[in-house]
Amino acid sequence: MHTLTDPYMQLLGLETRLVEPGRAVVAAQVRPEHLNIHGACHGGFLYSLADAAFALASNSHGTAAVALTTQMQYFKAVQAGEHLEAHALEEHLGRRTATYRIEVRSNGRVVALFTGTVFRFAEG
Amino acid sequence: MHTLTDPYMQLLGLETRLVEPGRAVVAAQVRPEHLNIHGACHGGFLYSLADAAFALASNSHGTAAVALTTQMQYFKAVQAGEHLEAHALEEHLGRRTATYRIEVRSNGRVVALFTGTVFRFAEG
Amino acid sequence: MHTLTDPYMQLLGLETRLVEPGRAVVAAQVRPEHLNIHGACHGGFLYSLADAAFALASNSHGTAAVALTTQMQYFKAVQAGEHLEAHALEEHLGRRTATYRIEVRSNGRVVALFTGTVFRFAEG
Amino acid sequence: MHTLTDPYMQLLGLETRLVEPGRAVVAAQVRPEHLNIHGACHGGFLYSLADAAFALASNSHGTAAVALTTQMQYFKAVQAGEHLEAHALEEHLGRRTATYRIEVRSNGRVVALFTGTVFRFAEG
Fold first, then answer.
1. Do C73 and A115 touch (CB under 8 A)?
2. Domain span at A76
3. Total number of domains constituting chain D
4. Which of A18, A122, B18, D80 could connect to B25 by a Cys-Cys bridge, CB 3.0–4.6 Å?
5. Is residue B61 part of a domain?
6. How many beta-carbon contacts under 8 Å exist across B and D?
7. Chain mean position to CA D84
8. Does A114 reside within a domain?
9. Which residue intervals define the domain Thioesterase in the entry (chains A, B, C, D) (predicted)?
10. Among all residues of chain A, which has the CA nearest to that of B43?
């Protein structure tokens, strides 16, 4: 069984839409409490949305996986009210590490790109 | 005058401790609502803490700065109750871009390392 | 006219196969002088191959572009004799910055993944 | 005993100055064959210099280490004739992974910053 949410996702209003082996989709609407000092969506919120999809996708094979390194590219400012989706895909699945690409989309357009690598713990 | 908080920082319980030209310190305690599916502090929370210090430091010169790319290295799992501090230092200040190093520390130990580059808008 | 090679590409034996607006392909064979202390292809060589494709693709629009930040993910060791191709695609084209994804492939398999962001100079 | 050079370092003219547990320094002079299409030092050469120091530092503990992910920040264009040094320091040493910071310096100034994470193989 996959875990589909956690306390941090609930705090931010992040909702799991899909989890399959190596894939996940997480969605959220940008609310006033997600804004930064410039009045736009906070980069930490966009990252957290992508990171949630990353965690679900990388833990979808039944082996516990923890993040080692991540990167985020911000393409476009996001405003309050926008509906966002983070789509995670597996770039590479190795025995002890794996890498994922997560697109953060608004209205079908990629507004930020996340790449993350996990360490996979050995099974039983 | 520097803006010392924003709605997203308030949602997460992040507190600004210091802002100086090119530097910032943001602090937080890890609470139950910051935990992930493994019961440890969520990577998105650690990133958001670092990102808040990054935003304050990179906007500390009076020129608006927005994140272009960031990287995060996770060294150690963080548990509920830990007191964290994110310390941002300027690695490089150019005319149109600048780069910052942010250490996330717990009990003086670096638990995660963030590197971020901003685009700096031209002044009036 | 696009410049299709430079002294560093010649030193490493890198050959341009394609340059189109926002795209480039560079190829090379791994030779004994490209190996590292483990006897496999040096990570710096794989990066240089990807970086050459990144430079060609990001300079393909007639605006001079210079690298700001890059990331590299290594998936699989590469051996002497392998034929490699680096395929660069544009992830995002903005006015002053742009981001590219470069896959390093051997026999159709992605052995390393490069992501890079450039600063674009204003035109005349 | 540490291996202090390899074929790729020799091709590029990279010279090891220091290897200690968790540390390394590699030096090079920028020559005409290291230049890019803009007539400045190629980003792949700067990366390769940093990567050589990264490899030496991460393999300095007697456990074989291979690169998983790396990042590079370019701060300043480098010209032919400049003398460069890459200084590698250990940010974090874990059982199965470790992270290094490598500064590329010219005349004492940091011209590029590299961060890299390795996977460490288990010992006999």
1. yes
2. 7-120
3. 1
4. B18
5. yes
6. 34
7. 11
8. yes
9. 38-110
10. A51
Residue A1 lies in a domain: no
In a domain, A2, yes or no: no
- Compute φ and ψ for C78, nearest 5 degrees: -115, 140
User: What is the model's pLDDT at position C124?
Assistant: 43
Average pLDDT, chain B: 95
Collect all residues of chain C within an 8 Å Cβ-Cβ radius of residue A99. Answer: 73, 75, 113
Q: Alpha-carbon distance A57 to A93, whole Å?
A: 11
Per-residue burial over A52-82, b if 16 or more Cβ lie within 10 Å, else e, is bbbbbbbbbeebebbbbbbbbbbbeebeeee
ipTM reported for the complex, 2 dp: 0.95
Q: How many CB pairs under 8 A join A and B?
A: 116
Question: What is the domain-level CATH number for residue A83?
Answer: 3.10.129.10
**B chain contacts of residue C71, beta-carbon cutoff 8 Å:** 71
Q: Do A99 and C75 touch (CB under 8 A)?
A: yes
> Minimum mean pLDDT among A2-6, A118-122, C15-19: which range?
A2-6
Q: Which residues of B touch C68 (CB under 8 A)?
A: 68-69, 97, 117
Q: In this predicted model, what pLDDT tens digit does every residue of D27-70 receive, in sequence order? A: 999 999 999 988 999 999 999 999 999 999 999 999 999 999 99
Q: What are the DSSP calls for A1-29, one per residue?
A: ------HHHHHHT-EEEEEETTEEEEEEE
Contacts of C8 in chain D (CB under 8 A): 33-36, 42, 44-45
